[in-house]
Amino acid sequence: MAAPADSARILVVDDQPDNVQLLSDILSVHGYAVETALSGQAALDAVARSVPDLVLLDVVMPGMSGLQVLRRLRTDTRLAMLPIVLVTALDPDIERVKGLEAGADDFIAKPVDASELLARVRSLVRVKHLFDRVEAQSAELKALNEDLERRVLAKVAEVERLSKLKRFLAPQVAARVSLDGADSILASHRRDIALVFFDLRGFTAFSEISEPEDAMRVLREFHHAIGTQSQRFSGTIERFVGDGAMVFFNDPEPVPEPCVQAARFALAVFEACREPIERWRREGFDLHIGAGLAYGYATLGAVGFSDRYDYAVVGTIANLASRLCSEARGGEIIVSARAAAALPETFRREAIGPLTLKGFRDPVEAFRLSGAG
What we know:
This protein has 373 residues and is α/β, with parallel strands linked by helices.
């Protein structure tokens, strides 16, 4: 579909004012915006100020001829697709060859036929507008590609940064640091959390009489069970400490019913370790898992120095979970009174009486967790 005539601007170049007036009148009546130039230099100046949609260029002019103007315009690569129509009263065959060699797009013989003029102008303007549209779309596509490339590079950098952070921080903590910055999450803050402490019973004696490769294999399997289940239940691994591990819930990302999540997580770890423990037993390794679960407020944040940080839990709850874990026999999960109270009735637990725990002045009420129902 041709572009509307009033959207096209035509530059008419002729040293004869009468010819300029005639061409201008024909074009203006049909909605074209017309600019005029009475010399070759004036034409070059007009194009330099604002590139038109088409140039009607007289061939014979004093000073600078139309062919010279044409050659000057074609030396500018930005004007390669500017339609230029030569208007001449000379022998059309001779002028056509010269014009084609100089870069003309079309020819109109004098005296000008209005219908022919309009048909040629309309056709060339349509082509020019189509080219301009393609150029605009190409520029837009280039900008979109550059923007996409910047986004991809930024995303790659973010992934690389997150990957490095995950070497030192729990995945949830690393993700928050990468997204919000270190200050937002690594600063000390208070939060009520549920915390589970695990210990691999019998590992110290086992490692003293076993090959290092066997000891490392057992630890990998033990840590793998804890790690995969912590991801499943949205837990944050505070640290692996040899034959132990600490995992907490409700920080840095909020978790609905953190005690329920922590209890289900602990039971899932015991279930995941059932097969490895049985296999270790067949290999002659007397190993079992004990766990302690506590619920309460703690201070959380970064500890360490500028080259290495850990995301740590500080407070009585961490000590309580660790001491409860120490009281647990192989295969037992010992739960604090507050944590037990936060669990629905569907969880099977039994009171085991007050426990005297190291570091606690008064005996502590505790429960044995045996299932989720």
